[in-house]
Amino acid sequence: MITLPIYVIFLCFLGILMGMEMNRRKRIEFQKRIIELESRMELLREELIELENLKSEMLSRIGVSLRKPLESVRETVIGLSRPLDRYPEVKDQLSRLVVEIEEIENFLNVMHELAALEHMDLASEAREEEGGGGEPWISLDTLLFDTLKEWNDQLSEKSMSLALSVDEDVRVAGSRYYLRHALDNILSEITRMMAPGTLIHIVLQKVGDRARLSIISKGDRAPGSEKSAFGAELARQIVSAHDGWLTGDDQTGSYAIELPSGGRARK
Predict the structure, then answer these.
(1) Domain ranges of the chain
(2) What is the fold, at CATH topology level, of the domain defined by 124-260?
(3) Where are the beta strands (DSSP E) in 49-207?
(4) Using an 8 Å Cβ cutoff, are 233 and 111 in contact?
(5) Amino acid 155: pLDDT
(6) Strand 171-172 and strand 161-166: pairing?
(7) pLDDT tens sequence across 90-118
(8) 239 three-state secondary structure
């Protein structure tokens, strides 16, 4: 009568001990796996840093290697075009070649900066551009107006007009310089592709926690126009580095940018 309960208690106690031992072994096994995964993650992180450093070095070397021969080619083309005033078609082709060479040079100049841009702390960059003070947000609507003010004469020369619908106090984090550069590239692409008389309708909206910028071209495509090899793509990389995205339609000259938004804008 007495031994049976003791035996049962002993079995229960033994079962508890075995369960605790199994749990202990599982914890040790999990801890080992976690340590192994952390070690692998650290190795992968070091490899990624090394690859990024190699990428930056490669971009710098490409820029240095190509800049001098491109400059020589451009000077040669300009020299060849001078005695060809009687052959406007050939002269025009050489002039377009000069423009393309200049775009390649501009692209090389920016590629090294983009390598650093991938690691940019957007909040810190915004503060640094304002002298180290203020909140980590820039006013995208103000930046847009400043950009269009600079483009007003160029658009007028091409007989292009603007229509604006802009929300106030739209804030994004990041580099005013690079975002301005992205806008310049998009406008350059539009003025290259579209014919005189085009209406450029720009809409800036704050939608939830996102800033949405639409640039819609209403007009005909310029005869013989060709897409730039770098303009829109460079803008896309800049927007991507700001945790956003850019889409575009080369046929209609329309683009859309979406960026994270928030904070209180600096005026």
Answers:
(1) 1-119, 124-260
(2) Heat Shock Protein 90 (3.30.565)
(3) 138-139, 161-166, 171-172, 199-207
(4) no
(5) 92
(6) unpaired
(7) 667 677 677 767 767 766 766 666 665 66
(8) helix
